[in-house]
Each structure stands twice: as C-alpha cells, then as structure tokens.
Amino acid sequence: MLTRIDHIGIACFDLDRTVEFYRATYGFEVFHTEVNEEQGVREAMLKINGTSDGGASYLQLLEPTREDSAVGKWLAKNGEGVHHIAFGTADVDGDARAIGDKGVRVLYDEPRRGSMGSRITFLHPKDCHGVLTELVTSAPRPEAEH
Ligand code: V0V
Ligand code: CO
C-alpha cells in the first residue's frame, strides 16, 4: 500500500546553487547528500516533515553526473523543474508487482538502490499520465549524514 509522498524529485543544473536557494528562500536544510553512480545523479535530500522513522517526506534535488543519464537527458530537453514524484510503501516489491499486473510498465525487474539505503523502482511516465513515478521503501531509520 502506498501510504505517503516520500519525495518530489527536482532536476537542476547546479546542485549547490539550488540547495542555497531552498535554504535562503524557505529555510530548508540539507538532511543528506550522496552520489548514485548507477542512476547518474548527485543529490541532496531536504527533509520537509517526518520523524526519522522512515516515514518522512523530502525534496530530492538532482544534478546529473553525466549527460546520458535520465536526469541529464531530461534537463537537456526540458530545463530545470519537477522530474518525478515518489510514493512511500512498506513493500515496494509487492506494490510494484500489483501495479505491473494492472498494465503499467515497471522499469526494473527488481528494485534498485535509492537514496539513504532505500529500495526503489519506477513506473513509466507514458503509462502514468505524463508523471515519472517512483516507489520507495525506506531503509529503517535513515540517519542524517552529509
Ligand atoms: C522522460 N519522459 C518523461 C520523463 N522523462 N516524462 C515525464 N517525466 C519525466 N521525468 C518522456 C519523454 O518526454 C519522452 O516523451 C518519453 O518519456 C521518452 O523519454 P526519452 O527522453 O526518450 O528518455 P528514455 O526513454 O531514454 O528514458 C525515460 C525513462 C528514464 C523514464 C525510461 O528517464 C528512466 O529510466 N527513469 C528512471 C530512472 C531515473 O529517472 N533516475 C533519476 C532519479 P515523448 O517526447 O516521446 O512524448 S534517481 C532517484 O530518484 C533516486 C536515486 C532516489 O529517489 O533515491
Ligand atoms: Co527519486
């Protein structure tokens, strides 16, 4: 069951400048940063609400590490903006299977590694009314670390 919005993924050209915008404008601080080479992103998670029990909501700022990555290609075509939404679930495997059975393309056979040790998969935007949709099972108790 999808129980919350885990994060909204926002593509940007310059992660440091975008982080500074969110800090200066709204007061959001960086909770976590990492590079995910498989996904071709450098990312910053800004925690919006939650209790550090795995049930939080974040903004995920994404800068591509290479031009041919998903975010790199998307930025070249669209410029900066909202790239995907991510729903949180306790059971990404089961939910991905159930959604796939409804005829929506699930992009990975098995969930892959996401931010902060989470397990993630994606649904094809063309099957979701134009919205790239991610399903996330958080790691238990993700700790802040920069
Ligand atoms: C592409 N399209 C999108 C889209 N990306 N539509 C809405 N939102 C997006 N983000 C549209 C695009 O405009 C095309 O439509 C069509 O899909 C095919 O796109 P393409 O440019 O030819 O690109 P593809 O087909 O090579 O790749 C698109 C997909 C790719 C969605 C398959 O981006 C992908 O595998 N995404 C999942 C992985 C990902 O996004 N990783 C980065 C975040 P027209 O022009 O034909 O109408 S990593 C992350 O979130 C992490 C680590 C985390 O949360 O922990
Ligand atoms: Co994401």
TrEMBL record:
GO terms for molecular function: metal ion binding; methylmalonyl-CoA epimerase activity. One of its GO terms (biological process) is L-methylmalonyl-CoA metabolic process. Pfam families: Glyoxalase_4. Residues 4-138 form the VOC domain. Gene3D superfamilies: 2,3-Dihydroxybiphenyl 1,2-Dioxygenase, domain 1 (3.10.180.10). Keywords: Isomerase, Metal-binding. Its EC number is 5.1.99.1. CDD domains: MMCE. InterPro entries: Glyas_Bleomycin-R_OHBP_Dase, MeMalonyl-CoA_epimerase, MMCE/EMCE_epimerase, VOC_core. Belongs to the methylmalonyl-CoA epimerase family. This is Methylmalonyl-CoA epimerase.
